[in-house]
Amino acid sequence: MARGVVPRQPSKAGRQEGAQKARRGFTRGASRQPAAPKQHTPVWPKSSPKSAAKAPAGYHPVAPERIREILKRLDQTYPGVTCALHHKNAWELLVATILSAQCTDERVNKTTPELFAKYPTPADFARLQPEQLEPDIRSTGFFRNKSKSVVGAAKKIVSDFGGQVPDTMDALLTLPGVARKTANVVLGTWFGKADGVVVDTHVYRIARRLELTTQTDAAKIEQDLMRAVPREKWILFAHQLIWHGRRLCVARAPKCADCPLESLCHAADKTWSTVDIHKAAKP
Ligand code: SF4
């Protein structure tokens, strides 16, 4: 057992305390949020959770059958989920994604309607000095850097791409403030192109808990996920992990009792477990 990790025992009622609270959390989110995911009804074993251990010999966390089962359960729980950032075109999605760094999607969605009403096109943003944009995006935090990124991206899009957001990874990465995460969001969500896997804070945490990677660098985690998950699932898989990270597999005290992946997950910081804990499987 990892130090400080005490998986809970099943209650006599067969329901973990806090499960109702977890379900209430499903009502939060942006308007593009899908219907509440299907609830998983766990059947707890009579035996107590097993103790922490290294992964047993012969255990392959990215074995195709395990990956298939993870994807199947995610599909059942989060069918058809997509990006929660409101947008009407690629430019709005790009800006919203830049603004979402270190900020909630809800806050960004409150900020962007007024912003795009005031400056409808990349050309409108390109005419600004970053300081002029700062008051409009101040509430999203880190507004000085974000202003520079948005105005810089707008200028580049107008000067080099005819005012249109480019639809390739290489071109997107030339835009100020755009790294692979933002480029993957725009390519996957707007253009439907699977060039990579979005690795945000939720994907990072869950990929490590599920032992889909042991890396700590986002670029390396993305490479591991691209190897483990079939390409046709890259876009949806990332969105599903993001929703899962918001709703159940939260950073502190994940809601494992309600998690459809529980029997496949050996994370060291689980709050409930019916399977072995692997001490290295942690965020
Ligand atoms: S069982 Fe817990 S730690 Fe594992 S994926 Fe589910 S919520 Fe996350």
Could you walk me through the main structural features you see in this protein, from its secondary elements to its overall organization?
The structure is a single chain. Helix 3 (90-99) runs antiparallel to helix 9 and helix 10 (201-209) crosses helix 12. Mean pLDDT is 86; it is low at 1-6 and 9-50. By secondary structure, this protein is an all-alpha fold. The longest helix is centred in the middle third of the chain and has 18 residues, at 143-160. Strands 1-2 form a two-stranded parallel ribbon. The chain is built from twelve helices and two strands; from the N terminus they run H-E-H-H-H-H-H-H-H-H-H-H-H-E. It has helices at residues 19-24, 64-77, 90-99, 105-118, 122-126, 130-137, 143-160, 169-172, 180-190, 201-209, 218-228, 234-247; strands at 52-53, 277-278. The chain is elongated, with a radius of gyration of 21 Å. The structure holds iron/sulfur cluster (SF4). Iron/sulfur cluster (SF4) binds next to helix 10.
List keywords for this structure.
mainly alpha; single chain; 12 helices; elongated; disordered N terminus; binds iron/sulfur cluster
> What is the 3D shape?
elongated
Note the run of SSEs as H and E: HEHHHHHHHHHHHE
Bound molecules: iron/sulfur cluster
Number of helices: 12
In what range is the share of β-strand residues?
under 5%
Query: Order of strands across the biggest sheet?
Result: 1-2
Main β sheet profile: 2 strands, parallel
Low-confidence stretches: 1-6, 9-50
Q: Pairing-aware structural class of the strands and helices?
A: mainly alpha
Radius of gyration over C-alpha positions, nearest whole angstrom: 21 Å
Q: Mean pLDDT, nearest integer?
A: 86
Count every beta strand, where a strand is a DSSP E run of 2 or more residues: 2
State the distance separating the first and last CA atoms: 16 Å
Amount of helix: 40-55%
